[in-house]
Amino acid sequence: MTTDATPPTPRAGVAVGRRALVWRRRRASVVRFVREYRTHRAGLAGLAALVLFALVALTAPLTVGSGVTGVTDAPGGPLQAPSGEFPLGTDRFGRDLLGLVVWGSRVSLLVGLLAAVLSVVIGAVVGITAGHFRGAYATVLMRITDWFLVMPALVLAIALATVMSRSLGTVILAIGVTSWPTTARLVRAGTLAVESRPYIERARALGGGHWHVMTRHVLPNVLPLVLAQTTLMISSSILAEATLAFLGLGDPTVVSWGGLLQDAREAGAVSAGDWWYLIPPGIAIAAVALAFTLCGRAVESVLDPRLGAAR
Q1: Which value, in Å, is the radius of gyration of the alpha carbons in the chain?
Q2: CB-based burial of residue 154 (10 Å sphere; 0-12 exposed, 13-18 middle, 19+ buried)?
Q3: What sign has the CA pseudo-torsion 55, 56, 60, 62?
Q4: Residue 239 CB burial class (10 angstroms; 0-12, 13-18, ≥19)
Q5: Is the pLDDT of residue 25 over 60?
């Protein structure tokens, strides 16, 4: 009697065993990372704050609703001081500032995250390719990187946001394409260190091409650096978004923390002493930037113990 099932070949069995070993090592690395991260009190505090901000942003449609941004049906009078009905007061249109701060967290966090991811992706691609190919290609890329490094990123972002249409996409693009050089420099240094190791020469001798070396050997080794840089870049991107919105270069159709500060400035809240219009969005920006920075420093310390960051 014959059967359709064929026994696995020895080579297939070796491949399955190798994949299982790789996954066991990855799980062990994740467990080790979590165990080390839990020893950083500042990192845990930052992570708890980020979880709170994320919950506030995700549940905003249920807690305050999109109607909180409406101007025509504002529930209060212009610039009312904090009270039982409006815990953070109202803005110049009579809208509830507490609801606006909660709703603005969605835009500020989204723009900061996407801009940071775009910046890190550009920096990682430039850094890995410049460290791998060397020669004239790397020289040109590094000179472009140096040019971006010496130019103030905020000035370039303002210039881009000025000449392009005012939208969230413009803000994300302006921040992302002007803040990648630091990541590129760090990733290039990591790539050069990885490619100097003997197993890279062995991979090339066995027929590994450029794509194989960069994706299977270089990228996994510089990925922890990219992860830590992403965490740190999010806080910078949120601050940059708030700055652009404060300067009137954000999307006027959405509510963000920086946009609230810009509205307060236009309403003369500083000279009038309407502190409730300025302090809540400012504290929110500072708190989320600090939380991402604490998490980023903790991730850096776990991935590179030589940094010796305080716990």
Answers
A1: 25
A2: middle
A3: positive
A4: buried
A5: yes
Q: What DSSP assignment string belongs to the chain?
A: ---S--PPPHHHHHHHHHHHHHHHHHHHHHHHHHHHHTT-HHHHHHHHHHHHHHHHHHTHHHHT-GGGG-STT-SS-TTPPP-SSSTT-B-TTS-BHHHHHHHHHHHHHHHHHHHHHHHHHHHHHHHHHHHHH-HHHHHHHHHHHHHHHHS-HHHHHHHHHHHS-SSHHHHHHHHHTTS-HHHHHHHHHHHHHHHTSHHHHHHHHTT--HHHHIIIIIHHHHHHHHHHHHHHHHHHHHHHHHHHHHTT-S-TTS--HHHHHHHHHHTTHHHHT-HHHHHHHHHHHHHHHHHHHHHHHHHHHHH-GGG----
* Cβ–Cβ under 8 Å, residues 89 and 69: no
**How many CA atoms are closer than 13 Å to the CA of 274, on its beta-carbon side?**
21
154-180: pLDDT as tens digits: 788 888 888 888 888 888 888 888 889
Residue 11 has pLDDT above 70, yes or no: no
Residues in the chain, overall count: 311
* CA neighbours closer than 13 Å in the CB half-sphere of residue 100: 33
- Does residue 138 have a pLDDT over 70? yes
Distance CA 101, CA 34 (A): 32
Residue 51: what pLDDT? 93
**What is the per-residue pLDDT across 87-129, written as a single tens digit (0 to 9) for each?**
998 888 889 999 999 999 998 889 889 998 999 999 999 999 9
Whole-number average pLDDT of the chain = 84
Write phi, then psi, for 90 (nearest 5 degrees). Answer: -125, 165
pLDDT at residue 1, as a whole number: 46
Q: Is the pLDDT reported for residue 132 higher than 90? A: no
Q: Fill in the amino acid letter for 298.
A: A
Residues 18-23, mean pLDDT to the nearest whole number: 70
